[in-house]
Amino acid sequence: MIRTILGDVEVLDGPILGHEHLQIDLSHNKGEDNILWQNEESAIIDDLNYTKVQYGLRVVADLSVPGGGRNPEALARISHQTGLHVVCATGFYWDAVPDIVVHSSHQKLRDIMIREIETGIDQTDLRCGTIKIGTDHTEPNSIFEKLFRAAAAASRATGVSIVTHTTKPEQATWQLDVLEDAGADLSHVLISHLHKVKDFSEIIAVGKRGAFIGIDQLGFKKGPMIGDVADIVVRAIAQGLGGQLILSSDIARKSRLRANGGIGYATTFSEFLPLLKQRGVPEPQISKIMSDNPLKIYSVRTDGK
User: Fold this and answer.
1) Residue 222 has what pLDDT?
2) Model confidence over 241-273: pLDDT tens digits?
3) Cβ–Cβ < 8 Å for 160, 131
4) Cα radius of gyration (the chain)
5) Are 89 and 163 in contact (CB under 8 A)?
6) What ranges make up the beta strands (E) of the chain?
7) What are the phi and psi torsion angles at 131 (to 5°)?
8) Do 218 and 246 touch, CB atoms closer than 8 A?
9) Assigned domain for 61 exists
10) Which domain holds residue 208?
11) Residue 301: Cβ-neighbour burial (10 angstroms; 0-12, 13-18, 19+)
């Protein structure tokens, strides 16, 4: 079962985009292109409908959080109008860390996340289905550790997963160390943006600890070329890590929408999966990566497994 913005849904078949943004506002630190808000809502709906029709998209995880433009009401509207299941995230933004994280206790942060998962966001009955946290470009300090420990506690209490943002992929070790020490189940943790690793051994290290591996900024102009990212994925599959890969495009800019000349939410399907096929990855393996893997991450665990 996954917890979507419109309610709990039983096991689903079909592709899932495990790291996207349907509403986001990072204009405060990344510029005016980094905003998808109500002005873009109709373009986002059209974009998603296109991807649904062309590629069978069933579920989208929106990983925006408070401080980064999360908009649960808009997510509910988008889900209604597209027929897609949308997972909403609780958690807190990290660049800059909001005052509530700086000044609140571990217990208060934990309880806020639990309430948004189990009861509802603010005064609504719209609930979250995952926890999103991250680290900025600086060395993680005690404030980040407090947030990660609170997230681990909320995950244990609710059975939802944890998704982390890494500003630098080498932060994965610190993130996993803190989460594990705080009692999180690392097999229910997704470490994002690992396509940027300088040494492939960093991906193997994350995989050996049981966490999911986010190759989730497909189509970004900055960073490795998309063909090089495909090589990383093929190498990970060869190392037995195919069951831990999450592929997605992390759409967070107006310019990436189809209405504005971009490829949009179809990017993973139209631009990346063909590269895997060219490299000999069989269709059943690709289907598992796009369907089974994200379903495992976003399933709410009620039995401790």
Assistant:
1) 85
2) 999 999 999 999 999 999 999 999 999 999 999
3) yes
4) 18
5) yes
6) 2-4, 7-9, 16-20, 24-25, 35-36, 59-62, 85-91, 130-135, 161-166, 189-191, 212-215, 245-247
7) -115, 130
8) no
9) no
10) 90-297
11) middle
Mapped onto helix, strand or coil, the DSSP state of residue 191 is strand
State the pLDDT confidence band at 221, using cuts at 50, 70 and 90.
confident
| pLDDT of residue 305 exceeding 70 | no
- pTM for the model: 0.97
Total tally of structural domains belonging to the chain: 1
Query: How open is the CA angle 36-3-245, to the nearest 5 degrees?
Result: 75
Q: Is residue 7 part of a domain?
A: no
208 assigned to some structural domain: yes
CA distance 215 to 232: 9
In tens, the pLDDT along 106-135 reads: 999 999 999 999 999 999 999 999 999 999
Cβ–Cβ under 8 Å, residues 250 and 263: no
Q: Could you tell me if residue 148 is inside a domain?
A: yes
Altogether, the residues listed in the chain come to a count of: 305
Burial of 48 (0-12, 13-18, 19+ CB in 10 A): buried
Q: Which long-range contacts (CB under 8 A, 24 or more apart) does 23-32 make?
A: 23/62, 23/64, 23/69, 23/70, 23/71, 23/74, 23/75, 23/78, 24/64, 24/68, 24/69, 24/70, 24/252, 25/68, 25/69, 26/68, 26/69, 26/252, 29/95, 29/96
CATH number, domain containing residue 140: 3.20.20.140
Whether the bond between 96 and the residue before it is cis, its omega within 30 degrees of 0, is yes
Total Cβ atoms within 10 A of residue 137: 9
